[in-house]
Amino acid sequence: GWWGRTGERWVAGRRVWSGERGRGGGGLRMAVTAGEEGVRGGKEGMEARGGDEVWRLAEAGEGLVVDIRDPRGLEREGRFPGAMHAPRGMLEFWFDPASPYHKEAFATDKKIILFCAGAWRSALAAKALKDMGGENIAEMDGGFGAWKKDGRPVE
């Protein structure tokens, strides 16, 4: 394969990174799963809930709906009524009970339903929480974009 300036190498159609910049020798190497392929892997085995079910769980107090979009997305597109905002960069810290940043809202028996704009980041985020030991985790199918497109309530 070819080694690029940044230490990347293409092997069998996959990007591999070398810990040593610009050369093929030594260092840490890891396969990078890009974009859509990584999301497909994140969605594999993940529970996705449609808008009607998410709304029913939220209204019944059985679901904690968590918006992981960045603040600009919230301002620009609006909010899911009553959803908790947890920026994607802080989610694992807020979820982890051992973290100094832990948010008590995540210490719940409710179904935790994550969403982003288009259900890509939320798929990876839900997988991360499951990998951390979360057992009652789902994502909202289609994300906030589908929620709005369906004419559902927005704050």
Detailed description of the structure:
- There is one protein chain.
- The strands form 2 sheets. A 5-stranded parallel beta sheet has the order 5-9-8-6-7, sandwiched between helices. A 4-stranded antiparallel beta sheet has the order 1-2-3-4, with no helix packed on it.
- Mean pLDDT is 81; it is low at 1-5 and 17-25.
- By secondary structure, it is an alpha/beta fold.
- Helix 1 (35-43) packs across helix 5 (121-131).
- The chain has helices spanning 35-43, 51-59, 71-77, 91-95, 121-131, 143-149, and strands at residues 2-3, 8-11, 14-17, 30-32, 48-49, 63-67, 84-85, 111-115, 137-140.
- The protein starts with a strand and ends in a 6-residue tail after the last helix.
Give the rounded overall mean pLDDT.
Answer: 81
Radius of gyration, CA atoms, in whole angstroms: 18 Å
Helix- and strand-based class? alpha/beta
Widest sheet: strand ordering = 5-9-8-6-7
The biggest sheet, with number of strands, parallel, antiparallel or mixed sense and barrel status, is: 5 strands, parallel
Whole-Å distance between the termini?
51 Å
- Poorly predicted runs are 1-5, 17-25
Strand content: 15-25%
Write down the secondary-structure element order. EEEEHEHEHEHEHEH
Number of continuous helical runs:
6
Q: What's the total count of β strands?
A: 9
- Globular, elongated, flat, extended or rod-shaped: what is the shape? globular
Helix content: 25-40%
